[in-house]
Amino acid sequence: MLNRAAARKVLSFHPQCQRIGLTHLCFADDLLIFTKGSEEAVGTVATILEKFYLVSGLRCNPSKSEIFCAGVNEEVKKTLVNCFGFKEGTLPVMYLGIPLSAGKLKAVDCKALVEKITSRIRGWQPKLLTYARKIQLIVAVLASISQYRMNIIQLPKKVIKEVESMCSKFLWSNMEQNKKAKVAWKHAAFPKEEGGLGFRDLWSWNQACLARHIWVVLANQETLWIAWLKEYWLRNISIWETQIRGSWVWNKILKTRPLLNSSLVCTEAGVEWNGAVMTRFSIKTVWDSLRPRRETVPWASLVWKGPLIPKNSLITWLVIQDRITTLDKVKKWNPDVLDICPLCHSDPETRDHLFFSCSYVRTVWSIVFDPWQISLGWTFQSGVLAAVTRLGDTPKHNT
């Protein structure tokens, strides 16, 4: 009905919608209507909605509907608001879970997202969860953010840090306690092959998500958004050359260009990424090229892969990071604590001593590694780390 009214020139288009003939956006029962900010145009919309009610029996709920005005004076604004009986809305406004704003998105605008994640994590706290299970849940939380919201908007850095802080607290203690993390998030947010716990670096993932929009423009996909960009902001100008202007979201998208221009190119075959045609944009591939990187570690496959108990894998990872609570660390917090190893009763209990140099433990390791004829060194680095690396390349023997 809105489109027919616009085609008959009964309904006036919004100035930024006329070239593509856009009157509204609708998803399920969420409806956005765009029109000129005049009493006549708004009155026409009100008439169309009333006719729709008479035909369908469906009517807008005034308590859940708002009118947004821009570029009009206060007198005209009051008149427009009175045409519907709706309250005047203010930006940002939530639409399909995304805060819509004409200006820069602030941390307070993402309050609903943070509260949702907080509620979700608090719901898990009463349960007796292992570290391994907590890691699985955190991965699910980060995926829920990255799969939808980050594909559309740039989350403020403050929000990303707050989400990561909540996840870190949940992993190592709980939301109410302010215990120090065993391993800082910045060290855990790396792939397991690089010595991390497999968490995503959210900031670089968000950049990769925004970069997807550059690919969409280059691939010339037939979408409403692309049609609007071509008519109002690009106007036959390459996306590599267009100036940063307009909305904050668009500017954030354009600022990802320096991250892409050496890898993403248009050819006769299509849009290519590092020389290979990219028929579908892979956020993971782009993220992998943008994220912070570390050298791969030789022990990752032995710690994480195979039929292993997740709890034991995490304990092994903590041992490698030297983040287990040995008596030498306890003594730093409480000088009255005796830090002598309870197994050999001769030397202070440190990570290296407890797992390798203790006479009792060395006997255990000798039995474990005897089938492979591996000789252990006296330190962590030269001992078991070298041994497990060698084991990764050695056929297993039956014991």
Taking Cα atoms only, what radius of gyration do you get, to the nearest Å?
A: 29 Å
- Gross morphology is elongated
How far the N terminus sits from the C terminus, by CA atoms, comes to: 78 Å
Percent range of helical residues: 40-55%
Helix-strand string: HEEHEHEEEHHHHHHHHEEEHHHHHHH
Poorly predicted runs:
391-399
What share of residues are in beta strands?
A: 5-15%
InterPro entries: RT_dom, RVT-Znf
Protein name: Reverse transcriptase domain-containing protein
Pfam families: RVT_1 (PF00078), zf-RVT (PF13966)
Domain Reverse transcriptase zinc-binding: 281-365
Keywords:
mainly alpha; 3-stranded antiparallel sheet; 399 residues; disordered C terminus
Write up this protein.
The strands form four sheets. The chain has a three-stranded antiparallel beta sheet, with no helix packed on it. It has a two-stranded antiparallel sheet with strand order 1-2. It has a two-stranded parallel sheet with strand order 3-4. Helix content is 46%, strand content 7%. It is elongated, with a radius of gyration of 29 Å. The C terminus is likely disordered. The N and C termini lie far apart (78 Å). It contains 18 helices and nine strands. β8 and β9 form a beta hairpin.
